[in-house]
Amino acid sequence: MSKRKIETVCVQGGYTPGNGEPRQIPIIQSTTFKYSTSEDMGKLFDLEAEGYFYSRLQNPTCDMVAKKICELEGGTAAMLTSSGQAANFFAVFNIANAGDHVVSTSAIYGGTFNLFNVTMRKMGIDFTFVSPDCSDEELEAAFKPNTKAVFGETIANPALRVLDIERFANAAHKHGVPMIVDNTFATPVNCRPFEFGADIVTHSTTKYMDGHGAAVGGCIVDSGKFDWQAYADKFPGLTTPDDSYHGITYCERFGKEGAFITKATAQLMRDFGCTPAPQSAFILNLGLESLHVRMARHCENGLAVAKFLKNHPKVTWVKYPNLEGDEDYELAQKYLPNGSCGVVSFGVKGGRKAAEAFMKELKLCAIETHVADARTCCLHPASATHRQMTDAELEAAGVSPDLVRLSCGIESADDLINDLAQALETV
Ligand SMILES: *Cc1c(COP(=O)(O)O)cnc(C)c1O
Prior knowledge:
By secondary structure, the chain is of the alpha/beta class. It folds into two domains: 16-285, Type I PLP-dependent aspartate aminotransferase-like (Major domain) (Aspartate Aminotransferase, domain 2), CATH 3.40.640.10; 293-425, Aspartate Aminotransferase, domain 1 (Alpha-Beta Complex). The protein contains 16 helices and twelve strands. The chain has helices at 6-12, 38-45, 60-73, 84-93, 110-122, 136-142, 165-174, 187-190, 236-239, 250-272, 278-289, 291-310, 329-335, 351-361, 391-396, 413-426, and strands at 77-81, 101-105, 126-130, 147-153, 179-182, 200-204, 218-222, 315-319, 343-348, 366-367, 377-379, 403-407. The strands form two sheets. It has a seven-stranded mixed beta sheet with strand order 1-7-6-5-4-2-3, with helices on both faces. It has a five-stranded mixed beta sheet with strand order 8-9-12-11-10. Strand 5 (179-182), helix 8 (187-190) and strand 6 (200-204) form a beta-alpha-beta unit. The chain starts with 5 loop residues before the first helix and ends with a helix. Residues 83-85, 88, 109, 111-112, 153, 157, 182, 184-185, 204, 206-207, 216, 218 line the site of pyridoxal-5'-phosphate.
């Protein structure tokens, strides 16, 4: 079959029913699977045959949805996880062990920053954070002999910085390590990081992919392009026998197209069990069916709201990558020509206090930690999601104390603007 367009994949990817089979993907709500002989099951355990044996590792419903996201991103293998946090943890921990090091941009989601800077440090993995605007020399200096990956977000949450994926991927490849890109905010509808050299893509599917605030989830997709074997010394987990899996060498058995996801499933899912419920995968798939339609409206509303705020006397600054004059406008033209996302951040004149007062007056826009929902929501990160960060860390992550993050839903832009206007009137 010829390569299908992204709109078609959103609706029909991942599952093609046969004659008389259910039109919608079946929810296989079963922890275990039955076999006729122990030998049959043994082959599955040895990864010699394909099939399911226990839903902690793999479940058919989850795999159908992973397959759809894999096709959307243009990858070769994918897995769902129980959250975006689990996806980023697995993506890094699958190749970085105690004593290893990772380069990450500093403009990343607060939860990911915490995962890297606190929890994974406790596991003995070191991180160097670099600004998305760092010079080539600074980026070069961040690498160490034990560096195993480079990490960044296509559009940073909540800083809305656009990552120069090509530049960071080139630096990663020069040092023989993969580029991992969290593509949550852009979604494959607006950017496909593999086309710019990224090797692994992660998602919090909780955001636009689900899009209805209904199911927490994550996904990891492998481009199948990174040649682990060419840097075998750096990635022994993929290129030498796994004693915990009957001596399998993932690269040998599954090639560069399948080694990464198979290892993450066989080792990390087995040991950590961050698996999504089949029911959650089904809900995620309903969201994916309209992703392309919703993203267009999210972007349309985001741009309309950004333009309104830009011209409002009570707004000191607006950050939206597709707004002309934005610091990332050029990068957005390159990486996000059809739009970025529905999230706009801005500062209310009068700083922290004024921002809080403004939020109280909003009627349509609800105060939530969530973003990327069909319903418009907003947040003041300095007093909520990012409150554990020091001022310096906030600054590095691009989050100022007066920043309001507004996630434009798919309602009428007129109604959103009217709500913002009446709330700004009161401050
Ligand atoms: C929300 C988010 C995460 C974490 O995802 P959860 O599903 O909440 O665990 C990771 N990265 C980005 C960019 C996010 O927005």
